[in-house]
Design brief:
It is a single chain. The protein is mainly alpha-helical and 118 residues long. It has one domain. It is built from five helices and no strands. α1 runs parallel beside α5 and α3 packs across α4. It is elongated. The relative contact order is 0.16.
């Protein structure tokens, strides 16, 4: 089941879990790194599935807004970035999941010392 609350939790959680992964890679604490990688796998898979699900029936939510309304919203502090994120939300979810899967691959590389540090 794809709900907005679970999407928000997995999206924000995947942002947050990246920093402990980098810390544990630097400190070579592989037990904690395995836990972080496992959590990131779950969050990334859910983000990818949610993005594909949303993309299947996605309509531009800003298509009904007039150009004047869009201009007013974009003129405020950072409003243009938020409007872009709303307009391309499924693509943003899929892209972020791909980036997280890349971090997962490097995290497992550190765990199994494929990419050894000197």
């Amino acid at each position: 089941m794809i709900t907005a609350k679970i999407i928000a939790i997995s999206f924000i959680g995947s942002f947050v879990i990246i920093w402990p992964m980098a810390y544990f890679q630097d400190k070579e604490k592989f037990e904690f790194l395995k836990i972080c990688v496992t959590i990131l796998i779950i969050f990334s898979a859910y983000n990818l599935i949610a993005g594909i699900y949303l993309l299947s029936g996605w309509e531009d939510p800003l298509s009904q807004a007039s150009s004047q309304q869009q201009g007013r919203a974009a003129a405020r502090r950072g409003g243009g970035i938020i409007l872009l994120a709303i307009k391309f939300w499924p693509y943003l979810l899929i892209g972020w999941a791909g980036y997280c899967f890349y971090n997962i691959a490097t995290g497992w590389g550190y765990v199994y010392k494929i990419k050894g540090k000197k």
